[in-house]
From TrEMBL:
PANTHER family cross-referenced by the UniProt entry: BETA-GALACTOSIDASE GANA (PTHR36447), BETA-GALACTOSIDASE YESZ (PTHR36447:SF2)
Species: Paenibacillus odorifer
Protein family per UniProt: Belongs to the glycosyl hydrolase 42 family.
Domain Beta-galactosidase C-terminal: 627-682
Signal peptide: none
Record lineage: Bacteria, Bacillati, Bacillota, Bacilli, Bacillales
Superkingdom in the source lineage: Bacteria
Domain Beta-galactosidase trimerisation: 406-610
Name of this protein: Beta-galactosidase
Enzyme Commission code: 3.2.1.23
Occurrences of domain Glycoside hydrolase family 42 N-terminal (ranges): 15-393
């Protein structure tokens, strides 16, 4: 039985580093946390050298005092296992634990996450520190849960130490048993890569063109990294389960080359996420049309919800970001930190901890600001945290355990994500289409889920949604296609984009007309195709029934041929030598329908399709401007409608029914003004 995120009340708290501050400050820190309404802190996740300053000598004094004092002040404690930052004595004595880059450079101290998951020595020493900590704190009344490591696969999610090559080889031997099968799966006959002895097999290594490994080997590499990361975390989870059975186990993150669904199913009580909405502005393409910025972060939160319907935010952005030489971000404006907190909650969080209590005065993160500034005097962010603390002390309990409502899901899967890293013929399309669909749905106030297709996904899970959007699944097995067909036959609407269905599980191309495994679902084949870039002028699509008429046919064009009578042409290409040929089709199949959109999606096209498949906002008693996000969390007998205003300016909304705002306790109806960055939770 998995333990829930929160049982009695909404938990609000903060990440705290007692080892960074004079002990004389702790009492005042804890007292002020309680004043703000905080009930929980996370500590210890980088403090290995404090717990084990010398190999085999364990010292718990500092953390005993910090935890006891927190407990005395009524703060619960989440303990991090400190394995993201091995001590200097450890890496000095056992350099084999260090990670090595693709190019062969060994990573050293200075930052964090400079170790590998495969070294037996590192696993042994991690198990020992975890055992010592779990034995020591497993029954502490103040400790409620554990965070394994910190952000598995953050900073770097590739590993090329000697132990990694060896572990990969062993993983492959288990998977393929014979070299003949490995050679076949990797298409090793191409460019003479066939192996005649297992000792010749490695993880991808430098090639004449930078980073040009065999793509099938590279896909297996990602699968291996994920399995290896999970098995590294499992060592710690098993120890904590045994020695601290009453405390919950989680880990924080959402990083590359890790099947976080599998990780959570196998090891964790629930998943935790670190939410920094400002990343949406520094990571995204500055030339993006009509971006969502911080609001776009909700797409990541939807992924987190697909892992754990209710989750913990272990780190919530509470100030401007910045490391000494990168990630410089603006300061949240008044109300933005509160908006982002409710963004997390609107998407399913039942516990939120801010990062961090006070900005560090030393180290790489001196510009990554917490709630308190270096000077530790009252400031605007502290006051804002206090307001949130007060609101959640009243309103939070009603929300915990309630589930998000969505009639549409964006579908993804790990194999395509990983394969797409080395395949520009589909990888970048997935990211773009996800983002464009999210924009279109958000602006029409239609909440969506994300659904990861996995081997164990059932028809029942799919059938929860009226519409599934699966933009560019290049890899599609016949089994997946037939599961999707069952979904469609019983009434589901399924939407594909270009480059669907032409690869098998190994990433090799089928010798079938496109869209390969999805041919029968779609009732079309692809007559011709082209990238739209370089010497190719941008092309357009002309829609029959839509008011918008013409939209861009972005990035790639599949020119479609109708194969089945059940197929209707919804739009044709409007330019280039294939003008007039089908670009978008709909196949009526059983009680449902399958759409094929021949290009990479943009917001305009997504918006037209939303109307044509009759997707609507689930809330019909509200009129909202575009800038306001709508999310709904439902309990057994109650429903909470979250409204989040991402604009700095006040906006007018209209309520056709009388509702109560959970946060302020006021009754609202008719024309209502939401303040800039304002939040309402209506019920
Ligand atoms: C997270 C990490 C924290 C801190 C924070 C701000 O990725 O877990 O330890 O580094 O970012 O940079």
């Amino acid at each position: 039985m998995k333990k829930p995120v929160a049982t009695e009340k909404f938990e609000l708290g903060v990440c705290y580093y007692p080892e960074h501050w004079p002990e004389s400050m702790w009492e005042d820190d804890y007292r002020r946390m309680r004043e703000l309404g905080f009930t929980i802190i996370r500590i210890g996740e980088f403090a290995w050298s404090i717990f084990e300053p010398v190999q085999g000598e364990f010292q718990f004094g500092l953390f005993d005092r910090a935890i006891d004092l927190a407990h005395k002040h009524g703060l619960q404690v989440v303990l991090g296992t400190p394995t993201a930052t091995p001590p200097a004595w450890l890496t000095h004595k056992y350099p084999e634990v260090l990670n090595v880059t693709y190019e062969g450079v060994t990573l050293q101290h200075g930052m964090r996450r400079h170790y590998n998951y495969s070294s037996p020595k590192y696993r042994e020493l991690c198990a020992r520190i975890t055992e010592q900590m779990a034995e020591h704190y497993g029954n502490h009344p103040g400790v409620v849960g554990w965070q394994i490591d910190n952000e598995l696969n953050c900073e770097i999610s590739e590993f090329y130490s000697e132990s990694d090559h060896k572990a990969f080889r062993e993983w492959l031997q288990q998977k393929y048993v014979t070299l003949e099968r490995l050679n076949e799966a990797w298409g090793a006959v191409f460019w003479n890569q066939s192996y005649s002895d297992w000792s010749q097999v490695y993880l991808p290594r430098p090639t004449p063109s930078p980073k040009q490994p065999n793509p099938h080997q590279a896909l297996d590499e990602k699968r291996f990294i994920s399995a290896n990361t999970i098995s590294f975390a499992e060592n710690q989870a098993d120890i904590i389960r045994k020695l601290a059975p009453k405390q919950w186990v989680t880990t924080n993150g959402l990083f590359g080359h890790l099947d976080s669904h599998e990780l959570t199913d196998e090891l964790l009580d629930f998943f935790s996420y670190d939410s920094y909405p400002q990343f949406s502005t520094i990571f995204y393409d500055p030339n993006e049309r009509n971006p969502l910025n911080d609001r776009g972060w909700g797409l990541s939160l939807s992924i987190v919800r697909s892992i754990s319907p209710n989750f913990c935010i272990m780190e919530q952005q509470s100030g401007p970001g910045g490391w000494v030489n990168r990630m410089d971000m603006p300061s949240p404006k008044p109300g933005q930190m509160r908006l982002w907190t409710y963004q997390s909650i609107a998407h399913g969080a039942d516990m939120v901890l801010y990062f961090r209590w006070r900005t560090a005065t030393m180290g790489n993160e001196i510009y990554w600001h917490g709630i308190n500034d270096y000077h530790n005097q009252p400031n605007r962010r502290v006051r804002e945290a206090g307001q949130i603390g007060q609101e959640l002390a009243g309103a939070g309990q009603a929300l915990i355990g309630t589930r998000n409502q969505a009639n549409v899901a964006i579908v993804r899967d790990y194999a395509n994500e990983w394969d797409g890293e080395y395949d520009v013929w589909h990888g970048p399309f997935m990211w773009k289409s996800n983002k464009e669909w999210y924009k279109a749905l958000q602006r029409k106030h239609i909440p969506n889920d994300v659904l990861y297709l996995r081997k164990k996904t059932t028809l029942e899970e799919l059938a929860r949604y009226d519409v599934l959007i699966y933009p560019h699944p290049a890899i599609m097995t016949d089994e997946t296609a037939s599961l999707l067909d069952e979904y469609v036959q019983q009434g589901g609407k399924l939407i594909f984009g270009c480059r669907t269905g032409y690869k098998d599980e190994r990433g090799q191309c089928y010798m079938r007309p496109f869209p390969g495994a999805a041919r029968d679902l779609c009732g079309i084949t692809v007559e011709e195709f082209t990238m739209v870039k370089g010497s190719r002028q941008p092309t357009t699509i002309s829609w029959s029934g839509a008011a918008e008429g013409v939209t861009g046919a972005d990035d790639f064009n599949d020119i479609l041929r109708i194969e089945d009578d059940s197929v209707e042409v919804m739009a044709v290409y409007a330019s280039d030598y294939y003008a007039g040929k089908p670009a978008v089709t709909r196949n009526r199949r059983g009680k449902g329908e399958v759409w094929y959109y021949g290009a990479v999606f943009n917001e305009q096209a997504a918006s037209i399709i939303i109307d044509q498949v009759s997707l609507q906002s689930p809330v019909d008693w509200l009129v909202l401007p575009e800038d306001v996000e709508l999310q709904v969390r439902n309990g057994t007998s109650s429903s909470y409608t979250f409204l989040l205003n991402y604009s700095e300016a006040p906006v007018a909304i209209h309520l056709h029914e009388t509702k109560m705002d959970l946060l302020s306790g006021t009754t609202l109806s008719g024309e209502v003004t939401m303040e800039g960055f304002g939040v309402l939770i209506l019920h």
